[in-house]
Amino acid sequence: MSLQVTALPRLPAAERPRTYGSIVRAQLARNRGAMAGLTLLAVAIGVALGAPWLAPYDPTFQDLLHPLQPPSRAHPFGTDEVGRDVLSRVIYGSRLSLSVGLISVGIGGTAGVTLGLVSGFYGGWLDDVILRIMDLLLAFPGILLALAIVAVLGPGLYNVMLAVGIAATPSFTRVTRGQTLAIRAMDYVTGARAIGCTSVRIMWRYILPNVLPSVIVLATLGLAWAILAASGLSFLGLGAQPPTPEWGAMLSFGRAYLRQAWWITTFPGLAIMVTVLGMNMLGDGLRDALDPKVPRS
Amino acid sequence: MADHGRLRRRAGLAGVMAVLLVGGLAVGGRAQDARGTLIHVQATVCADTLNQHLSNNTPCRMVARHVLDNLVAVNPADGTIHPWLAESWEITAGGRIYTFRLRRGVRFHDGTPFNAEAVRANFEWTMSPDRPRRGFRYLAMGGARYIRTEVVDEFTVRVFFREPHGGFLTYLSDGGLGIDSPAALRRLGDDYGSRELVGTGPFRLVSWTRGGDAVLERNPDYRWGPRVYGHTGPAFVERVVYRQVPEAGTRAAAVETGQATSAQVTPPDIAVLRGKPGVRIVLVPKAGTARMLLLNTRRGPLTDLRVRRAINHAINRPLLMRLPAWGGTGRPGLGPLPINMVPQAFRNLYRSQLEPVDYEYNLDRAKQLLEEAGWRPGPDGIRVRGVERLVLDHVIPEGVTVRESEPLQAMLRQAGIELRFRIGDFNFWIGTVSKGDYHATVISDSGYESAGILASFFRTGSVYNWYGFSSPELDRMLDTALASADPETRWRNLIGAMRIILVNAVGVMGWEEDYVFGVRTAVENLAFNEVAFPYFYPTRLR
Prior knowledge:
Largest interface: A-B, 21 and 25 residues
Largest sheet of chain B: 8 strands, mixed
Helix content of chain B: 25-40%
Number of strands of chain A: 0
CATH topology of chain A: MetI-like fold
Number of helices of chain B: 16
Helix content of chain A: 55-70%
Number of strands of chain B: 27
Strand order of the largest sheet of chain B: 1-13-23-12-2-11-10-9
Largest sheet of chain A: none
Radius of gyration of chain B: 24 Å
Radius of gyration of chain A: 24 Å
Number of helices of chain A: 11
Strand content of chain A: under 5%
Number of domains of chain A: 1
Shape of chain A: globular
Strand content of chain B: 15-25%
Structural class of chain A: mainly alpha
CATH architecture of chain A: Orthogonal Bundle
Order of helices and strands of chain A: HHHHHHHHHHH
CATH superfamily of chain A: MetI-like
Distance between the termini of chain B: 24 Å
Structural class of chain B: alpha+beta
Oligomer: heterodimer
Distance between the termini of chain A: 50 Å
């Protein structure tokens, strides 16, 4: 008796089952706004990483004989009131602004996601306590809250990161808790519990991965807000301290010369605008790509 | 300067009462002369209280100056003292007793009469041991030297001191020693100055709220103005409004667009306002100290005189003054008291004594001094001695001082010194500096009584001597100047004291400042008082 084995026909690539990630990537790739945002962000990151090679001058070097020079070949963005090259300061400023944004969101995201997971998973009095604290924080506009925290901690870049991070925490907590409440009722979570997984393992292995897409969207949008907030605090003199090149601080120092030397404030202002715009566009694209209610072609 | 329509007043002592007159000045004004409202904008109208017994805030004093009169008036141009509420005076017992004969027929804005009892009540209010706050007014009244004030008759008052108080008359001309209505002081108690201020001055206070406008209204009954301002009758404008605008650019725009008749602006605004129709720029040398980079002589590397001298040589003061932050205003400093504080008769002495011990910009000399002190260039350019780096903590309040300090940082770096900023608000700054927890700080003070100012900064143990410098010879000279009312004695000792300060490189006498005002050309006869702020009593609005 012979057994004839017939090989199954290989499915064309286009008909292969698509993973969730590939769907999201494809969706994102079709969104022109998101792609433009990604490009702007990539440029900002590239500039930040390549600052030592891209900047034509030391950003803190003062050429006191040539202050307030308008844009020229030697100084494409001009010089500031003590003769520092504005282009070099904008380039180095990108490092600081992106770092502040990332670290602030890192602080807010880590704290917020942890609190949201615990709150949503355990419920009860712990949920009540965490939520009331978050409600309290949410009662204040984010920038005002950050301002109050810096006022208590004192001026400085690290304190600004912490303040912006704390101000960003409630939104991460809220989103994570909402998602956790929905996910913890899923059968696979019940299954995990039935086979004896610990609560921490369930949160880490089964709930967190499903919460992450929403958190990533929030983080992208939060990054833009964090950069803006940190620049605002530096503008008020509470963030980066001289001679550190920081976009908000550059705006603040340049405003005394706004009508004589527009370049001191215009270029860091544009840098903030472009970076924040890029992040917002990418964030919007990600939200659409991850939102099941948005029709997919 | 003049070709840009700017008027620079250099002649005269600190404050320079620069009467920019175009129209005729009449003795005694008529009610029908008065017209218009002057709107003056500045960064702060008043930060604490208008009560001059308590306030140490110069802007508050500038508002109160229009409401309160003084016993005497100084002409800052020559330092001479003139009658005001006191018609004459006599100094006896070697400067320990002052007797004042007061003007008759003067009334406070609340209708109560001005007399010897009013003067006594004011002085006793300041000096009462029950008052917890010991501010400028307490020091101006002689501090611990003051004994009491005695009413001799209704219009004669006598003040007694334990030791001679040579600067008393000059202090009495300061806005901080204006005379309040004793009835109002009693009636309002601690609230006095928060809403009401009652004096005998050419303007009455209509309203003031913290952070908002202060509105002053002409006192039509005023007949006792000091002749140094050119007339003695009522003011020529109906109202004066002090408006608070923190942002310098907005203040400049306000005067440019005519929303304000005058504004205190910053040197960078000069370029904006220059040549604008209807606006002129007025520079007034600041009364008080020069702006100084003071060095803590008790701390780390700065205990070494060579390092302090090196810092002096490393700072290029003429170049500083050319930077946009100064906008061509001010002058490189020579001594702790700028030359505009020195009476004309002593200026040659001031120059001849201080110029030889001045520190010219000389980077090579600075490096040589640091080498001699054992500081060698490190791998990053900052000098090291053993494992110690030549890093100085520069404690500064946020704002303008940061802008001034950045070039200092660059200049000192060229000599191999790192100036590390520690920036905070005013409370942080004063808390840190007064504890001696710093190497360097930028500081200045406004005022008019030269001996008092210099002593408050440099006498051993004095209120602002936070940098540990102590010299018996310096103390002796300052004490002699403080006790003497004789200009010759005072200035010889003050100039000698400044020479000691320079020789010991207690700081870098950075720059002499000018206050910058944007003024509408419709404003005539704008005067500046003893501390170089506008005084609108003789001002007319065209």
